[in-house]
Amino acid sequence: MNKSEFKSSISNQSPSKFLPKALLALWRHKKGDWDKAHTIVQSENTTCCAWVYALLHKEEGDAGNTSY
Question: DSSP readout, 14-57?
Answer without folding.
Answer: S--TT--HHHHHHHHHHTT-HHHHHHHHHT--SHHHHHHHHHHH
